[in-house]
From TrEMBL:
InterPro entries: MOB_kinase_act_fam, MOB_kinase_act_sf. The gene is Mob3b_0. Keywords: Kinase, Metal-binding, Transferase, Zinc. GO terms for molecular function: kinase activity. SUPFAM superfamilies: Mob1/phocein. Transmembrane segments: none annotated. Pfam families: Mob1_phocein. This is MOB3B kinase. It comes from the Eukaryota. Zn(2+) binds at residues 78, 83. The lineage of its organism: Eukaryota, Metazoa, Chordata, Craniata, Vertebrata.
Length: 143
C-alpha cells in the first residue's frame, strides 16, 4: 500500500475544497448523498438555490479524485510491457493527441497514456478559467 501513495508514482493527491466555503459545503452534501445508498439520480440533482456550474464542478473534481485513487491502486500491475497498448478490449484502441508533443493521434503504452491523461485532466481542473475557485464565477460557455 505504501507504493500507492508514493509521490513519484502516478497517484496524485486529491484537490481539496477549502473548509468554510460554499464549494466545501456542496462537496460534503455530495459525499453524504453518495454514501447513503440513495438513488443516484436524486444524488446528482442540483440542490435548490445552488449554482449549476458550482455543482457540476464539485462532481467533476470528486469523480477525478475517485478515478485517480482507483488508478493508483492498479497502476503497478499495468506496465509498458504488460500493457503495451491503451485499449478498451480487442475492438478499441485509444491514441493520444494533445497538439503539443503529439500532434497526431499516437498509439502509446497504457501507463504512458494514463499519465498524460491524468496530467491533462489535472491541468483542466486547476485552470481558473475553467474551474474558478470562487463560487459563482464559472464561465457559462465552458461547462
Amino acid at each position: 500500500l505504501k507504493q500507492v501513495f508514493n509521490k513519484d508514482k502516478t497517484f496524485r493527491p486529491k484537490r481539496k475544497f477549502e473548509p468554510g466555503t460554499q464549494r466545501f459545503e456542496l462537496h460534503k452534501r455530495a459525499q453524504a448523498s453518495l454514501n447513503s445508498g440513495v438513488d443516484l439520480k436524486a444524488a446528482v440533482q442540483l440542490p435548490s438555490g445552488e449554482d449549476q456550474n458550482d455543482w457540476v464542478a464539485v462532481h467533476v473534481v470528486d469523480f477525478f479524485n475517485r478515478i485517480n485513487l482507483i488508478y493508483g491502486t492498479i497502476c503497478e500491475f499495468c506496465t509498458e510491457r504488460s500493457c503495451p497498448v491503451m485499449s478498451g478490449g480487442p475492438k478499441y484502441e485509444y491514441r493520444w493527441q494533445d497538439d503539443l508533443k503529439y500532434k497526431k493521434p499516437t498509439a502509446l503504452p497504457a501507463p504512458q497514456y494514463m499519465n498524460l491523461l491524468m496530467d491533462w485532466i489535472e491541468m483542466q481542473i486547476n485552470n481558473e478559467d475553467i474551474f474558478p475557485t470562487r463560487v459563482g464565477k464559472c464561465k457559462e460557455e465552458v461547462l
